[in-house]
Write a structure and sequence with these properties.
There is one protein chain. The protein is of the alpha+beta class. Helix content is 28%, strand content 30%. The chain has one domain. Strands 1, 2, 3, 4 and 5 form a 5-stranded antiparallel β-sheet that branches. β4 and β5 form a beta hairpin. The termini are far apart. The relative contact order is 0.24. The mean pLDDT is 90.
Length: 108
């Protein structure tokens, strides 16, 4: 089990950004050395679900918590990517759902 406090600062900030976004996508997320670059902040597009739950995930209120499988998978993908750009990172219920990476970004 991995906890938020165990992540490098950039990845922990990304997790918090996903939670705050709740539903939507992050576009043009630069990754350097397996770490997300959040300065400058990538483009964030919020999705509004009509008739849906709009509250943030329960973890938002906690300082530390165990990471869900989707988050640990994302962290592993960032490490594998190394240097590149995630064109679109889709977020559902404050968790990473899918990502799109251009083929050139995945070559080493």
């Amino acid at each position: 089990m991995v906890f938020l406090s165990e992540l490098p600062e950039a990845k922990a900030c990304l997790v918090r950004t996903l939670q705050e976004l709740h539903y939507g996508r992050i576009e043009g997320l630069i990754v350097r050395g397996g770490e997300p670059v959040l300065d400058p902040m990538p483009r964030i597009v919020t999705e509004h679900k009509f008739g849906g739950d709009h509250g943030p995930p329960a973890e938002v209120e906690r300082e530390d918590f165990a990471l869900r499988k989707q988050v640990t998978d994302l962290c592993q993908r960032l490490d594998q990517l190394g240097d590149g750009v995630i064109e679109v990172l889709t977020v559902k219920d404050g968790l990473p759902f899918s990502m799109q990476v251009c083929a050139a970004s995945t070559r080493r």
